[in-house]
Structures are given as C-alpha cells and as structure tokens.
Predict the 3D structure of the following.
Amino acid sequence: MKLDSAGLEILTREECLKLLASTPIGRIVFTDRALPAVQPVNFCLHEGLIVIRTTATSRLAMAARNTIVAFEGDHFDIETRTGWSVTAVGHARGVTDPEELERLSKLPLIPWAPGVREHYIVISPEQVSGRRLVR
Amino acid sequence: MKLDSAGLEILTREECLKLLASTPIGRIVFTDRALPAVQPVNFCLHEGLIVIRTTATSRLAMAARNTIVAFEGDHFDIETRTGWSVTAVGHARGVTDPEELERLSKLPLIPWAPGVREHYIVISPEQVSGRRLVR
C-alpha cells in the first residue's frame, strides 16, 4: 500500500476506474464565466470514456465544449470516517457525430433529472488519480 | 416550489446553507497549475464561513490562497434517484491572524485524514446556489 504525504492510500489508475464505475453519480468541474463551477451528474463509463447526458442548451453543455474539465467521484462512510475519491482530468467534448450518437443512445444511461436530454458530453480521462482513506 | 429550466427545484440561500450544514463532507474546486482541480474535505460552517483544516504545505493550501473557489456539498439517494446539491462560490484565504486561529482551533473540526493539520482555510460563500431533485 503506497501512501501520499497526507497519509492517504494512493490508488492505481485501474483501481480508480473500477471505483468510478461503481458509482452512478459524479461531479463535473469546469469554468463558467471565468469562475470555478461544479455540477453533479449521473454518468456511465463506456469504452474508457466518461459519458454524460444533458440538454444541448444547458450551462454544462455550453461550458464543457472542447475544453479541459475535471470529473470527480467519491464515496465516504460518515460512521467510520473512511472512503475514497477519484478525479479524472481530460478533454470534454459534445458529441456531434451521428454514428457515435447512435451508439451512445443505446447505453443504459437514463438521466436522473427530468426533461429531454439528448445531448451527450464525453470526457477522456487523461490524468486519473485517486486516494483511499482507511483506518 | 420554483423550478429551473431543467425541472430541478431551486433552493433559497437559507435552504442551501442549512443543507450544507447537514453534511460533514464537501468538495473544494480550485485551479491547480492552470487545470481544474477538486478535492473532498471535511469541513464545518462557522459564523457564515466554510472552514477547512489542512496542512500548510498541502496542494490545497497552496492553491486556495487568496483566490476564488467553489465549494460543493450534495446528497443523493441511488434507490429513489433523488437528492440535492449546493454550491458556494467565494474567496478562499489561509488564516494567519493568531486570534482567528485560536478561535478556529476550538471548533469541533477534526480532520478525517491522518497527520498534523493546523492550517485553516476559510471560504466566504458569496454566491450560493442549490438544486433539489424530487420525484
């Protein structure tokens, strides 16, 4: 077990992606009008990409268009004060290719929020890092 | 109940701060070497400020020094697909005033992560927004 300077266990990329796949909710971190912004989203991992479904006119769709974002997932247990967090940093893009859209529309990715959400954002997790807090 | 264009309930500032106070874990969103960064932290609300305890040499302490950050807290129920999220945007500063440090050291804020953490970061929640997802 490899620890960082803060005493947290450093997770491998493989462990990070496995943990990220275990949670349906993550948080996309982006810049909105020069200010830091963060928004929880439900997502799925597909062929190594983080896939999010939203509306084409959402603040998220506008901001996460061909830019670098961070994506975070975590799980903490309040009783035991243990948990993990994983952050992926990479390029986000809105999907416009009809064939790719067709493939993504078959994913088991049902938006939690109401309304029609036929815009897909994909993030390639270029830098992946994670930590686990154990007792 | 006021809904946004995505069909989510818009929370008042008062509701947001009450919900934020109900969770011990939040995520601080900042910029680290020109890239978006996010880190879960345990925190407490004190006199209207978000208070975080860390080490003086941490990446977070370095990055969240007199800058604007976002701070997010949320809670989601995977079964019912409901939940809430709150984001506060505001100035973050490292605390250096001895009297303020003395006051903050008396807070019931025990770091979850191991090690000596005697550096305090405070965020003033200048812009507070929140959404609730109901069925």
